[in-house]
Amino acid sequence: MERRVSCEVCNSSIGGTLVSVFPNIIMKVPANASMQEKSTIYESAVNSPREMSLLEFLKLGEKYREVIDRLRSCEDKEIRNKIKRTELPCATISASFTSRASSKAVEEKLKRYNSLMVLDFDNLEDPAAAKEELSQLPFFWYIGLSVGGKGLFGIVPLGTDDFKEHKVYFNALRKELEVFGYEVDKACCDATRLRVVSYDPDAFFNENCEVFCIDELEEDDGEVYSSGPVPERAQDRSSRIELYVQEWEKRRVPLDDYQDWMTVGMALASAGEECREFFHRISVFSSKYDREDTDRKFDGFLQNTRSIRIGSFFYKCHEYGVIPDCVPHYESVGFPVEVLPGKVQRIVYETHKCQNFPIDYIAPSLLFVACAACGNSTVIQIINGWCEKPILYMAIVGDRGTNKTSCFEFALGPIMGKDDEEYDKYVDAKALYDMEMCKPLKERNALIQEPDFCQTILSDFTPEVLVRQHKANPRGLIVYFDELIGFIYSFNKYRSGSDEQMWTQLFAGSGVTVNRVSSDPVKIDNTCISIFGGVQPGILKSFAKGKVQNGFMDRWIFAFPDKVPYPKLKENEIDDSVKESWNRIIERILSIPYDGKPNVLRFSPEAKVAYSDWFNSLSDQKNCGGDAFAGLATKMDRYCGRLALGLEILAYGCGESELTEVSLRSVKGAIALCYYFIGCGLKAQREYLSSPASDLPAIQRLIYDELPPSFETKQGVEIAAGYGMPERSFKRWLATSYFKKVSYGFYEKRFR
After folding, report:
1. Where does 309-408 show beta strands of DSSP type E?
2. What is the largest CA-CA distance in the chain?
3. Whole-angstrom Cα distance, residue 608 to residue 606?
4. Using an 8 Å Cβ cutoff, are 456 and 530 in contact?
5. Which pTM value belongs to this model?
6. Distance CA 590, CA 588 (A)
7. Are 555 and 504 contacting, i.e. CB atoms less than 8 angstroms apart?
8. Half-sphere exposure (CA, 13 Å, Cβ side) for 100?
9. What digits encode the pLDDT tens for the residues 176-185?
10. What 3-state class would DSSP assign to 328?
11. Is the pLDDT score of 26 beyond 50?
């Protein structure tokens, strides 16, 4: 059945439509009423509805707000249902009726068909996000919270005045919304269904909504859509298929299940004739294999591959455990403490034992502080012309109350202590300066200058302060926020430009200039600013919102352990020697001289080979792992060098290195850390990308995966048609937040 939304805009006021409002029966019955009285009340309630406008009914929820709030806060299902039955009025919105008595036929009760469809969306994980997404569809006049508060209901005007067509329109709408990943309560097909009054102060209204129409009233054509997890888009599809087929041949997996065999064949056929031999190479391991029959099947698949695309092939491979080694599958593993020097390992384990510091919190924190303490003093040369500073953008992901802050304060303690000392020096020097300034001009010391506060850790600053502090402390700065969402919320607070762009630029350690009308430009050529702090898992979406496509999120590494238990009180106190040991390590790192020219370290010969092999392996993984993985791993080649330098710096702080080169041990440790941070990054990515792309239903995920980053409408329509999505549905999808309109007939994907 071909379905479409007409271009006709609602001219009449939907809000003025009269609906039948029925009082709640049980609420009206006194406890001591006789059977005759109860019967009279019942007859009156079901046979004497009052009419009010639809808008009046929707606003009626304000009057019952107290009751609705009580219902939403109640955990007992029976009590909630009782409240709905006894304390809240209800209405039939799709049509008006003279009665709600079940003994009467619908045609007998029908007073007026309102040409409205009410759709229920139950048990949504994020009703607010769903409301925002659904509101982009042009046929919704109203979307608001259901009475329970965990779902939504919407109202759609229909292009029919025939009551008998109501169910047909419902089925069309239901399938339309399934394409967009929303399941509608099937009970909504009943035009007599009662709608309990609800309350939503942020309800969505669209008086210019479009009327939902159907071209032909006939049965659906039996479209079949692929389902299941969909792997990421390959940059080189043929190469990727070859890798999987080779792995299948290596494992010699028999594909004896007929349905699975058909799925694999159709999926390969969707990629063209060149995949015929791939199909044979896989099919040959089945006891039922026949070459001629396989060819005949493939010929048929080539003629009709609308229902299944190549993504289903990769899915089946994963389902059968056929995964090439070069395709990254990083499991959630703990921080590799063994890569740290022995003294630092002792600090990790002692603080964990005595202070309940989670290892995945304290270990990365110590590594971060070591890198930050090094700052501009030492860099690593990857190849000629390519050097890396130990700049890290690190976020520790964990729930509140799991000891993140205590870990941060312990790790940053030596730097905080240094800042305290510098502040005391600054106060004394500023007092002397102020005294000098109080003297008559002729008596002042002409050489005296206003002192600078050589601060390292910043948490509240303007861009000008950031640059001026860096000038005062050329070694480098730490931007620290206990909760990094505060850092994100500060963006563009003090300037009209893009702070994201500034921090993206600062990640490379290049120069930065801040211009102001009211003051002279502030410029620094050799920056080294690292960012550190915590973020709660539930806030990752807010943390990353609008910052994926511009590369900002690609520059972050996450320490994201599995669920960290809330700490219990321990009687063991940490030995003072542990804190003293950490202080000595950082003091030794801070003692590395810096006069504006950094110490340049190169790989040892063995380390160079190890880094090169890993670099090339990562490139293969990015080529085969898909866009999302490639974006995540795009900065890991840089981070590997930075982390190797950080480990070498830590070894120096522990007296285990002379800082003459970067050792093989440091490179191997950095590689292990990269795998750890990639695994954590994938976990974080699932959180902050879950709304835009990863939560799409299977058909849309396949289409989105198939679409190039930029495309013409015609190209997109053709790809969507290959999955059975109607042109009209695809064009409507283009109007949502998943795409950006560049020009007429030309679009870009907003997400990887």
Report:
1. 378-383, 386-388, 393-397
2. 108
3. 5
4. no
5. 0.53
6. 5
7. yes
8. 25
9. 887 677 888 8
10. coil
11. no
